[in-house]
Amino acid sequence: MELDTIAAISTPPGEGAIAIIRMSGDEAVQIGDRIYQGKKKLQDVDSHTIHYGHLVHPRTNETVEEVMVTVLRTPKTFTREDIVEINVHGGVVSADRVLQLVLSEGARLAEPGEFTKRAFLNGRIDLSQAEGVMDMIRSKTDRAMNVAMQQVEGRLARQIRKLRTQLLEAIAHIEVNIDYPEYDAESVTLERLQKQITAVQQEIDQLLATAHQGKILREGLATAIIGRPNVGKSSLMNALVQDNRAIVTEVPGTTRDVLEEYVNVKGVPLRLIDTAGIRETEDIVEKLGVERSRQALTDAELILFVLNANEPLSKEDEALFSAIKDFNAVVVLNKTDLPKEIDENQVRALVGDRPLVTTSLLYDEGIEGLEKAIAHLFFDQGVEEAEMSYVSNTRHIALLNQAKETINEAQEAAQNEMPVDMVQIDVTRAWEHLGEIVGENAPDQLIDQLFSQFCLGK
Ligand code: GDP
Ligand code: ZN
């Protein structure tokens, strides 16, 4: 494939110790040599080596920058094209100046995600791997990063290809039956077909079973902390944030806005929403906050309900218990350092079979138990120990579901002894759905849209 040479600043914008300008394409080395002066010309250096030198403006002969230049020759590169990476001193100005220089010497400014797109177009990675690259950039915990990494390594792709091969074999058998009906009785063909696609069906089910957890790892679990005023909600939020690396802090629009913070609880990313207390108030701004809090409760996938052990259970507490009855919840009995005033039996009755943990947030006690309870609610053995691969990408999940549906249709058709060519249509469609996951026959529009979500320089 003949593609032009592209360039972009590959390091994040802003100040840094170094910045990297990356070029990829047939002319990358030539363009490099037009502006680089060092011991050797870049065209003469070995692949995968790095070289000290200076960038000199080819027309003014002015020294632009002191640099380290890496030369990576096709095919063992990320894009499968020649790559030249110019390391410059950090700072927006110097990186930009070098980028302008390579652009004026014939490179074209890369679109967002175009390097990864090249890797895809040049056949180095498939679409699911490319999507993995994107997920890796965005992942919020190490575990989510691992899931994305497995995808980049092609684990999912291999599994999908195996399933496609199995379906193709089934299709081939039907083909034979259609072309040589005397070869096999139709009923025999249908029976064998059912066996073959049942195996595929089971594997798709297994993959889909990981989807819920995969999505949690990828997107984080929307978590609301609720409870009456003063029970310790803010203390709980702070404890979770302190005990864990806070990953992203959303800058709230106003001080009364719902505040969001990501924390990593035993590998499960929680998107914590401080609900500013679910209670009535006259203050209008405060009301907005409360409105949003109610919304947050509806959206929540996990609720941490805090009770004060130092006060008797109130009507409000009971109302909150009924408000959360359809939610995943962990009940936190806080302030256990103070004299117990709450009726624990009454609490247990309301909690039912949900986890109940006791804490003294003032003294940092009980947080480990709470974190364990959260992790076990969603992952039987806790995430960090689990070593399985997850389907986490929404597009993949949708396509797996479509494949599953068409296979079900094929099963039904076979059971009802429909003509084999009818069954074949369904099996072929399932094969196509799976193909879309790895980017086979993916429409250009989809590909463009996917890669445009990448950041510049990736
Ligand atoms: P919120 O209104 O529910 O957010 O509650 P806060 O987290 O702001 O806590 C209210 C008050 O209770 C603060 O003075 C905290 O220091 C105190 N507090 C929180 N947790 C504990 C605890 O476990 N024991 C004791 N004795 N006080 C606590
Ligand atoms: Zn608070």
Automatic annotation (TrEMBL):
Mg(2+) binds at residues 234, 255. GTP binds at residues 230-235, 249-255, 274-277. Keywords: Coiled coil, Cytoplasm, GTP-binding, Hydrolase, Magnesium, Metal-binding, Nucleotide-binding, Potassium, tRNA processing. The keyword Cell wall biogenesis/degradation does not apply. PROSITE patterns: G_TRME. GO terms for cellular component: cytosol. Residues 183-210 form a coiled coil. Its cofactor is K(+). It is found in: Cytoplasm. (6S)-5-formyl-5,6,7,8-tetrahydrofolate binds at residues 22, 85, 124, 458. GO terms for biological process: tRNA methylation; tRNA wobble uridine modification. It is an enzyme of class 3 (hydrolase). K(+) binds at residues 230, 249, 251, 254. GO terms for molecular function: GTP binding; GTPase activity; identical protein binding; metal ion binding. Exhibits a very high intrinsic GTPase hydrolysis rate. Involved in the addition of a carboxymethylaminomethyl (cmnm) group at the wobble position (U34) of certain tRNAs, forming tRNA-cmnm(5)s(2)U34. Belongs to the TRAFAC class TrmE-Era-EngA-EngB-Septin-like GTPase superfamily. TrmE GTPase family. NCBIfam families: mnmE_trmE_thdF, PRK05291.1-3, small_GTP. PANTHER family: TRNA MODIFICATION GTPASE GTPBP3 (PTHR42714), TRNA MODIFICATION GTPASE GTPBP3, MITOCHONDRIAL (PTHR42714:SF2). This is tRNA modification GTPase MnmE. It comes from Geomicrobium halophilum. The lineage of its organism: Bacteria, Bacillati, Bacillota, Bacilli, Bacillales.
